[in-house]
Amino acid sequence: xxxxxxxxTNKNQxxxxxxxxxxxxxxxxxxxxxxxxxxxxxxEDYLIELEISNYSLNTIKTYKSIINNFHKFLKKxxxxxxxxxxxxxxxxxxxxxxxxxxxxxNYIYLxxxxxxxxxxxxxxxxxxxxxxxxxxxxxxxSLNEKEVKSLLLAIDWDENENKSKIITKMRDKLILTLLYxxxxxxxxxxxxxxxxxxxxxxxxxxxxxGDKDRVVLFDKNTKNLILKYLNLREHENKYLFxxxxxxxxxxxxxxxxxxxxxxxxxxxxxxxxxxxxHSYATHLLKNGVDIRVIQQLLGHASLSTTQIYTxxxxxxxxTVYDQAKSTGLENE
Length: 332
Description:
Layout: H1 33-36, H2 39-52, H3 57-75, H4 83-100, H5 105-121, H6 145-153, H7 163-182, H8 186-189, E1 197-198, E2 203-207, E3 213-217, H9 220-232, H10 251-264, H11 273-286, H12 291-298, H13 303-309, H14 314-331
Antiparallel strand pairs: 1-2, 2-3
């Protein structure tokens, strides 16, 4: 670093001036930007900062993957000596993602935002002119009540079956039941702690995004299923859901398990843990639960986020509208 012609700065400039022209070492060779900045160290420092700032582990994992993939792409570029070439490399990377990886517009938005935030944290402003593309907005999909019932009924067992199989099926049914009846995120569900369950009040204390606590409710049938599962499972563990070896289950296991039982139930729609969360919110609203109560149960900081989740079909809207109009006429 000491041999590099570092850009000069003053009080009115950002810490690193833009590389409008290439830099040269003492031998007159152009300096590759990746050799000027220690990207590996910058990435490590940034991820540490995210963890200190209470970003969720899933978010940090996503950011790490995006930044590392971009860094790998940059290392394959032969010309990276000034800001213009860095900007061009970023645009080529976005083009590569769209053409070769066929990613969504929303993922392009996320990549753009994450990389810009990472660079700006390190006082590098090569992408100032880049504006994140608009995200596509679509109504979240959900299952209807009949489909949810079919999904839950797809998991059954015979008391004469192997004990290990019964435990697995009982655990899987409890997972689906809790995802739908509490609206938990899959990351919250895999981290459920037994001591956080209050069987008397039928509540569970949830540590959500940003270390924000909230309480979710469960009914008597779910209570009985939890107790039965805890009594039957073979491993004592602080986590509610564990595999055959006694280790916490993974989100990936849950995703594959839901897909399997969705196919068994004959449901043609794609089913994920998040779709069950959408379904939970949608069905609560359709059954008259106030949207602010739903916001609290879901753990949303903003009511606008809850409004997106509560995807109510047009039939329900018409019914509510007609009831309101008829009631109004009767009162006149």
